[in-house]
């Protein structure tokens, strides 16, 4: 879909709109289509001139503790409230079983399941995860709707990733989880604010920085 948007834009206004801007706008529009909030997207980001597969992997993978997540976010100018609000995007989408399989059989090397996982959810996940690349909804209750059910799930021990569930057990993050679980509008309005912040992290905007890619899959050759 990003490639389709890009090729249409290149036809009508070549080398004007970056892939970074397309992705930022598409994330906002997809959120609205799923029932989530609107936020204003500013434009003018450039694309990087270097693209490394190894850098795409430098994101949290679902096994981190809250301290590591907080540090990762803070290094990018995002605070604990942003961490909890942006994690709410796991109200849609899926995860491979690979990302949480340890919770089902051998949590932290204990050879037992994660005690913070509901027993019925544990049994469901064991059935759904026949192979590590099988996919499971991140929000088991309303997987296709952008809503605050992600947070009520955490209160009921229905978080899929260990990092999701930890947001409810850690004292630094649980007050925000409880606020979002009980006040859906608080979540959607904070999500919009945090997405604007996320969309401004490490952006390239100066004249001598970056480029407008012609094809989002490759850096420009000329
Ligand atoms: C708090 C730190 C985060 C962690 C540890 C995390 C971890 C993960 C993991 C492990 C998956 C599943 C990957 C797989 O096995 O296929 C996933 C999926 C997803 N994440 Fe996150 N994530 C985080 C933050 C975010 C943020 C900030 C956003 C967006 C604002 C986001 C949006 C998504 C979406 C939409 C999916 C589903 C993708 C799909 O269905 O293909 N996540 N995340």
UniProtKB/TrEMBL annotation:
Molecular function terms from GO: heme binding; lactoperoxidase activity; metal ion binding
Entry binding sites for heme b: 90
GO terms classed as biological process: hydrogen peroxide catabolic process; response to oxidative stress
Taxonomy, superkingdom: Eukaryota
Residue ranges annotated for the Plant heme peroxidase family profile domain, each copy included: 1-220
Catalytic reaction equation(s): 2 a phenolic donor + H2O2 = 2 a phenolic radical donor + 2 H2O
Protein residues bound to substrate: 60
InterPro entries: Haem_peroxidase, Haem_peroxidase_sf, Peroxidase_pln, Peroxidases_heam-ligand_BS, Secretory_peroxidase
Pfam families the UniProt entry points to: peroxidase
EC id: 1.11.1.7
Family affiliation: Belongs to the peroxidase family. Ascorbate peroxidase subfamily.
Protein function: Removal of H(2)O(2), oxidation of toxic reductants, biosynthesis and degradation of lignin, suberization, auxin catabolism, response to environmental stresses such as wounding, pathogen attack and oxidative stress. These functions might be dependent on each isozyme/isoform in each plant tissue.
UniProt-recorded name of the protein: peroxidase
Organism: Lupinus albus (White lupine)
């Amino acid at each position: 879909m990003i490639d389709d948007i890009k090729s249409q834009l290149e036809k009508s206004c070549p080398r004007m709109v970056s892939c970074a801007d397309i992705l930022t706008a598409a994330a906002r529009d997809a959120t609205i289509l799923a029932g989530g909030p609107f936020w204003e997207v500013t434009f003018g980001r450039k694309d990087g001139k270097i693209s490394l597969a190894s850098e795409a992997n430098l994101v949290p993978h679902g096994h981190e503790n809250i301290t590591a997540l907080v540090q990762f976010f803070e290094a990018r100018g995002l605070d604990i409230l942003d961490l909890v609000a942006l994690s709410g995007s796991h109200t849609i989408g899926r995860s491979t079983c690979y990302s949480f399989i340890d919770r089902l059989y051998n949590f932290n090397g204990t050879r037992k399941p994660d005690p913070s996982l509901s027993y019925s959810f544990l049994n469901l996940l064991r059935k759904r995860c026949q192979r590590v690349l099988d996919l499971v909804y991140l929000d088991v209750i309303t997987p296709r709707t952008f809503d605050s059910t992600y947070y009520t799930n955490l209160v009921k021990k229905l978080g899929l990733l260990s990092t999701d569930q930890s947001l409810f057990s850690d004292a630094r993050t649980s007050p925000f989880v409880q606020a979002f679980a009980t006040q859906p509008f608080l979540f959607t309005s904070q999500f919009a604010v945090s997405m604007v912040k996320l969309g401004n992290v490490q952006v390239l905007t100066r004249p001598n920085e970056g480029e407008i890619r012609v094809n989002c899959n490759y850096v420009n050759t000329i």
